[in-house]
Amino acid sequence: MTQDPIVDIRGLNHWFGSGDARKQALFDVEMTLPRGSFTVLMGPSGSGKTTVLTLVGCLRGVQDGSVRLMGQELRGADAETLTGLRQRLGFIFQAHNLHESLTAIQNVVMGVQVRPGVPDALARQAAARALGLVGLADRLDYLPANLSGGQKQRVAVARALVGNPALVLADEPTAALDKDSAADVVDLLKRLGAERGTTTLLVTHDNRILDRADRILTLEDGRIVSVEDRT
Amino acid sequence: MSRLLQRLFGRLPIGWLQLTHKRGRFAAALAGVAFANVLVFVQLGLMNSMAAATLKPYGFFQADIMISAGDANALAEGGNVARQWMLQALADPEVAEGLSLFVGTVPWDRGETDIALTTFGIDPGRPGFIAPGLTEDLHLLSVQDAAILDRLARGLPPDEAAAIRPQTPLRFEAQDRTLTALATFAGGGGFGGDGFMLVSDQTFLSLFPSRSSAAPDHILLRLRPGADVPAAIARLRGLVSDQSLRIRSYGDAAAEDLRYQQTQRPTGVIFGFGVLIGVLVGLVIVYQVLSADVADHMREYATFKAMGYGPRFFLGIVLEEALVLGLLGFLPGLAIGTAILTLMGKVTTLPLTMTPGMAVTVFLGTVGFSALSGIIATRRLAAADPADLF
């Protein structure tokens, strides 16, 4: 039996600006992300990778075409629906974007508490477990200022994964990391994703991590120009 | 504190953690809120003091109705009233008795300091008009040039005042006459005078030769027990042909005097503006702190937005910060405000004290303006666009 894909994009066009300044960023993009897949989206700067990520992540409105996320059509969806969907996603940013005033475990707790009704003790327990999985069990009460770049990004990974998201959207998560740390983070994403059935869409320029992808999509000038299936 | 707030809010106390993360800025913010509180406390203290000082002399007397000249906005202001209207008022069956009340300022030259005594001239044979605490010594005023002196008068040494008794009177020169203080009562300095003095109407007329017994400053009336005061006032307005006179209940006269002092006199208006400025300063300080804090954490807020946190969550954080600033800024503000008012009260002998009512009012006001500042500051959160994070 074939499961519905987590993400199903059909005929997606997107523009920025208006009038004479209007510029089309995406042209008739089609993309499907099966459940549990690890997909890398590549392409030069300005090719539209980030636009795809923000549209799938419910952070921009879909203007033309169709984006179905977990079966829900995003085009025309109201703000409440989009916010609800975002609670089921995991985001990892190029900059870790950890809250400087919160300790590592508190930052990760934020990834659980977004869903109402989770008791404090349970949230803290899940956050500690997630930090243990990324190898930071001994850094629970460290503030971000006292963690290395790789450790911060691992906290961000833990924060993205702690709520068992259906889809992780990662934007250049290894850009600021050295080779070993980058490999650690991607391996971690892939391993945890495989264990939990989490789908990952990772945008990157980093060739070092391509061999870990199930699929590689290449975007150029707003168009998908190649799809490489490596499973 | 963090755990307490976490239990209270049912989530991480992010506002508290953000504020306390930068301790120097947090301390400066609390100092700012405390400063605004002190401003408001001092101005409120002065306003309350003015109210207390205005109403104080009304407490020396007991009456149901007061008749005053049309321009007599305050007890010691305005023209005279013809005594004939008192006689006319006594024709009303409900009016039991009347009293001519004379008011003037007697300067007491004490060498280095002058004491301005607001002096009331009354008929000592009518104790029913005098407040219970003063009636025991009232008979002493029957002696010419006798006086009952305010022992709390500004410039009068307490030990000197404490020694005043009928057996050990204090004689002093004023208005080219020698007055004899035979007893004392508790008055206190106000904004218009340094203290009070009670004398007989005859002594008063000796002190103010230009004044006439036929033209007191006010007429006080007492009604028979159970009489309807508004009905009596309405009848008196019909009886008294001079329509310019103000015929009011005694309580209304005091309230109108207070309203006049607060809204018409420069001091009252200035104190009122002082309170307003204190509130505005507090509002601006809290807004600046919260607004800068929101700007500093824009990326974090955008991240939370991306994660699915909604507007109520962000409003909660900013309001949490506003309340923390309001509450923790209030406590030092209360302590410093109390100390300043106590000190000012000692120096000026004005009734400047921190009252529970003031503390509660300022506390609620602080929490209110902090919350308002927080609500305004959350408008900046609209700029936190999670799409910009990528």
Automatic annotation (TrEMBL), chain A:
CDD domains listed in its UniProt record: ABC_MJ0796_LolCDE_FtsE
GO cellular component: plasma membrane
Database matches in SMART domains: AAA
Gene3D superfamilies given in the database record: P-loop containing nucleotide triphosphate hydrolases
InterPro entries, per the entry: AAA+_ATPase, ABC_heterocyst_DevA, ABC_transporter-like_ATP-bd, ABC_transporter-like_CS, ABC_transpr_LolD-like, MacB-like_ATP-bd, P-loop_NTPase
An annotated Gene Ontology molecular function: ATP binding
One Pfam assignment: ABC_tran
The keyword Glycosyltransferase appears for this protein: no
Keywords associated with the record: ATP-binding, Nucleotide-binding, Transport
Name assigned to this protein: ATP-binding cassette domain-containing protein
UniProtKB/TrEMBL annotation, chain B:
Membrane topology: Multi-pass membrane protein
Subcellular location field: Cell membrane
Source superkingdom: Bacteria
Pfam family, one: FtsX
TM annotation in the entry: 26-46, 269-290, 322-345, 357-377
InterPro entries cross-referenced by the UniProt entry: ABC-4/HrtB_transporter, ABC3_permease_C, DevC
A Gene Ontology term for the protein's cellular component: plasma membrane
Domain ABC3 transporter permease C-terminal positions: 274-385
Keywords, comma-separated and alphabetical: Cell membrane, Membrane, Transmembrane, Transmembrane helix, Transport
Protein's UniProt name: FtsX-like permease family protein
